């Protein structure tokens, strides 16, 4: 029997049930994940995607929404002076506010590390974040009020100004027409008739309410009755008004009060040769005068209007004033984020620099800031996105007459669409423009976050 070698065929590899089962499990997991994500996607589509698409479509129609106008609304944006002002103000916000906030946050974060009660200090600075923009706008609208009796900033400014410059006591005072005093172009008053040494002058003023007289004011009758010496000129400045009626204009009556604290000058040939201030009864005198004629002058400083402070919400300062309110709210946010980054810095690098003899400024500039650059960039870009959408503060703080001077893209979009313009086509175009400006900053932030995650 010849031995034959029988080559046995190898059996086929069995199909492992786990392969198909694994695919089914993965497919099932995707379905479950989609079911869980679906509500979020639905909300995202309803609240973000649909409004964006609708706004893009609406921006291609006229104000009524019935006639297709193509890119006319986009062209109109750049022809409208108010929209150009909004774009300019938005650019100012984007450049100034994030830069200041990032700088302030960095400085405060570094300084807070050296403060004993650092946590309490951080809490104090972060507390404005708990205040809504509406409430903050009302607070700063009152703080910026031009009336020093209401606005705390102008109250402080007026107090400092008056401490150095002083203020007039009789801003409403004036002379009666035809009663011996002539008003000059600079607001001062000069006697029409010259006075010689040995003579007297009675200078009557009106326009001052008796209740506004200084507390030390005395009756002027006795001062008016005094006699001048041979080398002096005497006189009285008085309120030419008798309470309760009666009295004669231009005559010092018994019930009429002197005006204390009034500056009086003796003028000769256009030059001031002597000056004094009236006493409690309004009397004054110039002594040692040479013979000749003199005019008596009441300088305009006696009647200057009181200093009312700074017009914070005027056309020139309204945007910086609103940015100041924004800084008050967001400085704590920047400080806390940068402080978190500062706490994660490698301390050995800082200590090595100190051991090498570097001072604190060199450490801050050459080590701390470069190491914090990623954190500073994230804070800056986040604030750029935020300021592009600022609306509440601008709308609340800026008064109606200067609303156009302070407007930004977000407020202009609302005003054009709903605030009286009723042109939702143009308003939608402004919304699309704002979206296009925000998207690059958002993409930059997301990419940077992903790189940091990797």
Order of helices and strands: HHHHHHEEEEHEEEEEHHHHHHH
Mean pLDDT: 85
CATH class of the largest domain: Mainly Alpha
How many strand units? 9
CATH superfamily assignment of the largest domain?
MetI-like
Q: What composes the largest sheet? A: 5 strands, antiparallel
Count of runs of 4 or more consecutive helical residues: 14
Beta-strand proportion: 5-15%
Structural class: alpha+beta
Q: What is the second-level CATH architecture of the largest domain?
A: Orthogonal Bundle
Shape: elongated
Compute the separation of the termini in Å.
73 Å
Radius of gyration: 39 Å
Major sheet strand order: 2-3-9-6-7
The CATH topology of the largest domain comes to: MetI-like fold
Helix content: 40-55%
Contiguous uncertain segments of 5+ residues:
1-9
Subcellular location: Cell membrane; Secreted
Domain ABC transmembrane type-1: 87-445
Membrane topology: Multi-pass membrane protein
Region (Disordered): 1-21
Give a short summary of the structure:
Helices cover 51% and strands 9% of the residues.
